[in-house]
Amino acid sequence: MTFELTWYGHSTWAVTVDDTELLIDPFFDNPKTDTDPEELDPDHVLITHGHADHIGDVDRFGGSHFVSTPEITGYLADNYGIEESTGMNLGGTVELGDAFVTMVRADHTNGLDTGYGASGGMPAGFVISDKKPTQESDADTTTFYHAGDTSLHSEMRDVIGTFLEPDAAAVPVGDHFTMGPAQAAVAVDWIDVDVAFPMHYDTFPPIEIDTDEFVREVKATGSDADVVVLDGDESYTLAE
């Protein structure tokens, strides 16, 4: 089973699970990527919330199937002409080709496009695995957690880490609008992942940080997670 992750800067990730290609929060107008979104052809596009720096390039993927809250999928249909979508909500799991996608809580705001005006419902994160999550722990399952834009919250420890058991997590570290390095490090420890990726940093002046601070903070928690700081457009293989 192939499970490959590619970071395109900010919160934009491609996740390939065997023959299924997923893209999360398409926003390519960021300094970490040189990728033209027209080069990508994902089967499914997952949207964590409706802020402009997470849906900025959805119009480039009109042929893909979108997954988000019903409020956001309706908004994208009305304003971006997205024809194929699935609305879901927190706690739900949908099967998308070779992947199982569970929508989980994120603590943030969710105004559509700009952060003002109509609400996109609850913001979210996504846990993506190659097997359907059950209460039975399975060491052969590979699982990736995209935390979305969030602050630290206890559900990371009590539900996401304990029940969904991610092997790797991408967590926002830029501070100001989300967790900073210290809280993100606690999240990594609570989730108990093997690999942690920082995201949502250096895109705008308020979220410019030194990622070495995140590395130090993770170590200070006592976590054994390997912090991997990817370059934009760089890939990482979780399993083959």
Describe this structure in words.
This protein has five helices and 14 strands. 20% of the residues lie in helices and 27% in strands. The chain has one domain (3-230): Ribonuclease Z/Hydroxyacylglutathione hydrolase-like (Metallo-beta-lactamase, Chain A, 4-Layer Sandwich). The protein is globular and about 45 Å long. The termini are close together. The mean pLDDT is 96. The strands form two sheets. It has a seven-stranded mixed β-sheet, covered by helices on one side. Strands 7-8-9-10-11-12-13 form a seven-stranded mixed β-sheet. The longest helix has 11 residues, at 70-80. By secondary structure, the chain is an alpha/beta fold. α3 packs parallel to α4 and α4 crosses α5.
Domain module count = 1
Number of strands: 14
Main β-sheet description:
7 strands, mixed
CATH class: Alpha Beta
At CATH level 3, the topology is Metallo-beta-lactamase, Chain A
Shape: globular
Distance between the termini: 5 Å
> Number of helix segments?
5
The name of the CATH superfamily reads Ribonuclease Z/Hydroxyacylglutathione hydrolase-like
Q: What would you call the structural class?
A: alpha/beta
Query: What are the secondary-structure elements, in order, as H or E?
Result: EEEEHEHEEEEEHEHEHEE
Mean pLDDT: 96
Structure at a glance:
It contains five helices and 14 strands. With 240 residues, the protein is an alpha/beta fold. The chain has a seven-stranded mixed beta sheet, covered by helices on one side. Strands 7-8-9-10-11-12-13 form a seven-stranded mixed beta sheet.
Write the layout of secondary structure elements.
Blueprint: E1 3-7, E2 13-17, E3 20-24, E4 44-46, H1 52-55, E5 65-68, H2 70-80, E6 85-87, E7 93-96, E8 99-105, E9 124-129, E10 143-146, H3 155-164, E11 168-172, H4 181-191, E12 195-199, H5 211-221, E13 226-227, E14 234-239
Parallel strand pairs: 3-4, 4-5, 5-6, 10-11, 11-12, 12-13
Antiparallel strand pairs: 1-2, 1-14, 2-3, 7-8, 8-9, 9-10
